[in-house]
Structure formats: C-alpha cells, structure tokens
Amino acid sequence: MNIKKVMIGWLALVMALTFAYPTSLTATEQTVVEASEAIELDVSRSLFSLTEVRTVDISADFGEELDLEQLEVQFGGKSLSEWKKWSGGSNYEGEPFINVIEGPSYLDGTTEVGATVEFGLLYNTSNLSNRTIRTQYQDFIGDYELALVDPQSGEKAATTVTLNVYDEFLFYDELKPAIDEVFADVAADGENDRYLEYQKVGESVEGRDIHFVILARDEAAVDKYLNETLPTALEDPAQLLEKLENGTMGDYQIPVWFNNIHPDEVEGVDAQIELLKKFALEDEVTFTNTDESNNESPVTLHMDDVLDDAIFLYMFTNNPDGRVANTRSNAEGFDLNRDNANQTQVETQQVNELISKWTPLSFVDMHGYVNGFLIEPGTPPHNPNFEYDLLIDNMLEQAHAMGRAGVGSSDLTSYFIAQLEWEDGWDDMTPAYTAMYAMLHGSLGHTVEVPTLSQDSLRAMVGVGLGSTLYVTENKDELYKEQLEIFKRGVNGEDNRAVDEYFVNAAGESIGRVRNGQESFFPDYYVIPTDDKAQKNILEAHKMAEYLLRNGVKVEETTRQVQVNGTTYPKGTYIVPMNQAKRGLANAVLYSGDNVSDWNAMYDPVVVNFPALRGFDMDEVREEGLFSGKTVEVAEGVVPTSNIKGNGPKQIIKNSTNDTVKFVNALLADGKSVEVATESKGNIVKGDYLVETKDVRAYANQYYIETHPAGKGASVETQSLTQPKVAATGSDQLNFSLRQLGFELVDAANADVIVSDGSNFNREQIAGKSFIGIGGRALRVVEESGLITDFTTAQTRANHEGLVKADVNDHPFTAGYEAEELLYVTTGTWITDIPEEAEVLASFSEGDDFYQAGWWPGHEGAKGQTMAFTTQVEDTSYTLFANDLAFRGHTEHSYRLLANSIFQSTSN
C-alpha cells in the first residue's frame, strides 16, 4: 500500500470538508486503481512542478466519436476549474492554475482525441520561499489521476501523473530509498568499482535516522585518510608539509563535505542526492561554468580523476524531524544552526562528532533563501580563534567557483559574496553556525543561500557542489598546505600576527586579537579542577571534558599533584594543552569572549564561554611545558556517579548542580519527602536539600548529587517542598529547559507557577499563582499591565546580549550562588525601578568592567541597575529576571535560579 498516497487522500477529504482548499490534494489509492481500469491516457509528460509552468499533450482513443464540447479534463478526480490559485493566507480562491489551452479535438481524422493542458503556477510565482507558502505547498505534492472524461457515457481515459515542487524533491521517507537505489546501481554495474558506504550517524529527537554517505575511489582511500593522513596532520603537520613541498606526498585524498541543517530550505537536501548520483554513477560530469563576465563554457569532471583527489561526504540533513515537519527547527524547537557550539541537541552532538572525526578540507552548508544568491565568507567581526589569514583567500576563491558554477547551471544571473558586498550583519563571530564550526577544524566553511525555493535554485545548488568540487580538485595541494599550516600553528603554540589585519573594529581599523598585554592570545593550558575544594560544579567540569573530547580536542589529566603559582592541583585535574591542532576550537568555547558592541549589526549572539554559562571553575596557565610529564591523555569523558556516605536517617544534598534539581523533582514525583534548608547550620548551607537516606540510595545511580550525612544539622529550620505544577509560555527553549530539569509541565489553568520568557501574559491566569518572568519581553508586558506599582524597565534592543558581572544577594531564590557571578543577558534589558517592598535578588555590578563580552551597544546604561527581584502583589507573587535563565539550553549555570524560584513559590 502506498501510505503517502493514502495519507494525502485523507488530507484531501479533510480539506474539502473544511473548505480550506478548493480541491482534493492527490489521488487516493482508489483513484489510481480506477486509472488502471480506464482507457489509457497517453501523455507527453507525467511530472509537473509547482515552480515551473509546464504543458502536456494528452490523447486517448475512445473507439467512437464523442461530443467534444462535453469532454472534460479532470485532475485528481476534480474539474480543472476547481483547482484554484492561492489567494493569500490559507485561501485558494483565484483563477484555476490548470487549464486546457488547446482542444479537445480529433487527431488526423481518427477517433483519437487530443488536447493540450497547461499546469501554471499555483502560487502565482516560481519562488515558494515565502514563509506562508512554505508551510502549505507540500500538501499538494503527490500522485494524481489525470483523466479525459466523457460525462455522457461515463467513459474516461486516465493515467497517473506526479505533481512536485520541483522534479528532484524528496520527502524524508524517500531519501533512504533514493540512496539505496544509487548503491544498487553501482553494485549492478560491473565496471563501477567506486566505494560507497552508508552510515546511520544516530537518531533525531523523534527517533529518525540521520543518513550519511561516504563516496571514495576505494575503501583503502578512506582507511588511509582516517588512519594515516589525518592522524599525522593533527600530530605532526610539519611532516606532511615537507612532503608536499618536496613532492613525496604520494597518493592522498582530502574530504569534501556537503551539508544541510535547515531542511525546509529544501534544495540543500535534494541537491546532495543529485550530486551523489552524478559522482557515484557517471564517468564524466559536464556542467556549464561562467567567468567573471558571465561568459559560459562547458567543464567536465572526470570522476576517476576527481576521486583520486577527494572523498565526498554527504550529510543530507542534520535534522530529519524538520524535514518531516517542513520546519527549520528540530522537534524540540531549536534552530540547530545556532547549536553547533552549544550542542544541547542530540542532532548536533552526533553530527559534530562526525565533523570532528573527518576534519574536512571543504565544508559547504546548503541553505536558502537570501535574495541575490549569497555565498560566504561573511562580514566582520570575525572570530579571533580562526587562523583567518590561512582561510580567507581560499574561501573567497572557492566562493567564486561555487557562484559561477551555480549561475552557469541555472537561470540565475549573479551571486554575491557577503564579505565583499556588505560591511556587517552577516558575520562569522559566533561558532554557532555549522560552517563556522567547521572553520574551527581548519575547513573552508561556507554557508550558501540560494535565492528562491524553486526548480532553478535546485539547479543552482547542484552547480554549487560541482563548482566546489572543481575548485578543490584543481587546487588540492595548495589548499591542504594551508590547512596543515593551521594545524602547525596549533601544535607549535604559535600566535601568528599575520591574522591581526583581519580582526577589525567597526571603523575598519585593525585591532588584532585582544591579547590584554599577554604575548599570546592563547594560554598554554586551560586547567579544569575536579575536586570539591577548587571546583564549584564537578558535574559540569566532567561534562566539559566529555564535550571537548567529542569535538576532537585533546584533554589530559594530572597523574600527580601539581603546584602552579601557589595553587595546588590534585591528581585527576583536567588539563587542556593548547599546543594542539584543534586549539582554535578549544579556545572558542573556553575563552572569556570579546566585546563587539561597537558594531551596528550582528547576525546572532556571540557569547559562548562554557565556564561562565555552564558554571564551572577553570584557570588559565601561561607557562610553557609546566604540565609536561605530569599528565596522561584522557580517552573518553566519564561523568561521575554519586557517593553516598554514612547510614544516618537523612542526607544533605548540596544545591550545586542541575542534577540536584532533577533528583529533587524525581523524588517529589514519587511522593517522597524533600525539605530545603532556610538557614545555614553545621554542615548545612541555606538552600541545601534534606532527604531520607534510603530515598537517596534509590536514585544515586541516576543523577550526580553531592551528599553528606545530615548529623546534628537535621534540626535546622526547613521548608517542605511539594511537587510544583509549572506552565511554560514563550519559547520552545524554555519549555525544553524546564523538562530537562524534571518539572511537571501543565497548562496555565492547572499550574501553580507560570514561567514566561515571551510576551504572552494573562492577568486572569496568574491570579493566585506565582509568575516568573525572564528577559525583556516578559518584563515589558508585566510593566505595561500596571499590576506592579513603581516597576519600570529600560531596553536598548531586544537582540542585544552580554555576559555581565552581577552582585547576587543572599536570598532563598539565589541559594547555591556566590555573591559575585557572571550572568547572561540576551534581550538588552535592565530594571530601573521596583516597588519599595520588593526584594532585590541580583544587580548589575557597579564596576566599570561589569560588561565582559557580547554585542550590546548602550550597555553602559545597565551598570548598577537591578537585574532581578521578587515581590508579592495581593495573592500573586512575581519574580522577574532581566537576565536569561534558559537561553537555547546553554545557560545551565542559571538553571538553579529558575529552579529555586519555582520551588520556593510552592514550598510550605
């Protein structure tokens, strides 16, 4: 049974009943059967496009003369007049988009009847990138019955045809069969000995396979690259550079990676299937190239020669769930192209581990739909962890090569390179994007944005892949030398000043890497303590080591106690040596960040800083060789387990990690008793939890919690916790974070606590409850409601962000935090006035250095202002934070502020 046809037929029935669309969407299974029983309808074509006008000649011999004026052409069992054009919104009330433009008439004096039918543009445009259209057009894709019907006799001639957005479009469920077909065709061709390997990288949030294909000359080429060439490149790049210089490198291949991460930008998926077909099955691939004057010329890729130079890697889409749902985001509501550094989502964790494994030379991330056919490299400011001088010239050349081939392969007439055409606003400062993440591995990383959702853009995107292949194979040795030079700088610990001219301020002046008086931008080591005396969050310290290893960064641990400038690091301390090939990636996620607030525009937040945003202690060490001979390399990250001490009746659970919150929520969900200390006494610190020892033991293997016996501290003053019922309004990311922490999410009507980071605020819904507002949008609607007297805020812009120093007050809502913290603001907001009776939880520091990193023009206005407070108004409590507690799942250090606020809102 064709499930897709059945489902589309069911959708057609629903839409016919609701009048949302004027006609059925596709042929049902029954219709297709009827077509096989009818007179055969001959057609000149059977594939039609929503983005190209196409005509079809149809004919059939009914064996007798008919009243031609009564003959009717039908599509999907409906009259053509019922297939109306889109008229806006979800309405289809325009003129018919399918019309008979010639006939019906008899052919050559026979009883054969012919006609010409035109399939026009359902949406009055060949570009379906408009977001309203983009959410609807896929409903019309499918197989239909095209029929010529005589209503008098009831006879019809019919056949099955296909309507697609463009010819090559595939739904997610069609991708693996298409891949399998290529594999089968290669296997069936006795003369084709190319190596193909399919890998299931992992699964998406909803359990769909992430497809990955390797195409190479042979398996030996893959093995040599992964087991010989790449390890040498990362450990001893100078050796390979010498071989390239003296001509003794011999046979070698470099990886070219094609990628898609926004699956509703559909060409990026389908173009890869087309490139796989061409490169795997054809001996020669000929395409039209253009030069700087748009003069066209044919170019032929001889695939045996190409595969002597390159290994092709196809990541058809990082986001299978988005391909199914036709969305940019994954099933958790995250834009994965903002998660490549944070890696909070399973898809980016799995795919980026693979990128780290392969370390491609060329990385092309296929996107849409920026008007004009945009190709990176991007505008400044540039991330200072790139060896930009070794990347930029080659990236510009490859961008031109991709653009010229894209234009030559399509009806597009031009492309543009963001860095050459724009001053700012399309920057590569953050490693959140896939292409920028790849650049930290030494790749020529490009985001490519075709301008339209159309047949033409599909052809252009295929051309992009062809142009990239041509450029890499024609320049392989020189390109690989530059990548090896990047690795060499890392291995040698070299901060080469040649990069400085590319790191400019908004005035275009070179400022170089910000070294703050140090000889090198990079420290010699990052030290991450793992003992409870030097580390405030042992769990996050171990998770950081796990992250770095997953991303191809070397991590070591001390084999004995080491003293550094009066600080003693015990055995087992993590050491990140910065004399390594991937030091740029390590530094990008560990360094404090830069202040780029002088720029007029930035595309996305730039603060990464894992130690601050995940909340663990880390030290820089600037003394070469200090840990030499005192460490061993860590093979894999291991998250610690809980260690329960003593057999007393109760345990003190430190309020120190997010696992503690998960643990408390699990206990409350199971009806167990949990108390929170309201004072510090003995071994107990205010905000710690008290739990019966038997209950702790039952959960100890599921969470990392830090415990010690309650002892005499059992007499401390406490509050009993009840399981809070929480409603989340606003972002999907907030919803994700709350679920991560184990809170039971309900609708607002049934909630005890409503948490919001958006502008959805209902004064009736919050009456008698607790409301927690996060960020500028939530604070603004509360302010505008007038429910809190003397409450005002200020904002520069809703997308301004910054890591700031904060003064944190001693309060149950801030339990587990220090008096001075680094907190993160993402909506350019601060609080200017609060009610007299309100309790201030945190304030922006008064110091001139309160602003640490980010992009926040006008941040000076926040200095010394209130960041968070709590107050009671009649029967409703309000806790409002100008800082962000749950931004993209990355601000985990702030999660406990959120958890404390929720627990305290419902405690007894």
UniProtKB/TrEMBL annotation:
Keywords: Signal. It comes from Alkalihalophilus sp. As8PL. Pfam families: Peptidase_M14. The keyword Mitochondrion does not apply. One of its GO terms (molecular function) is metallocarboxypeptidase activity. This is M14 family metallopeptidase. InterPro entries: Peptidase_M14. Residues 194-371 form the Peptidase M14 domain. One of its GO terms (biological process) is proteolysis. Residues 1-20 form the signal peptide.
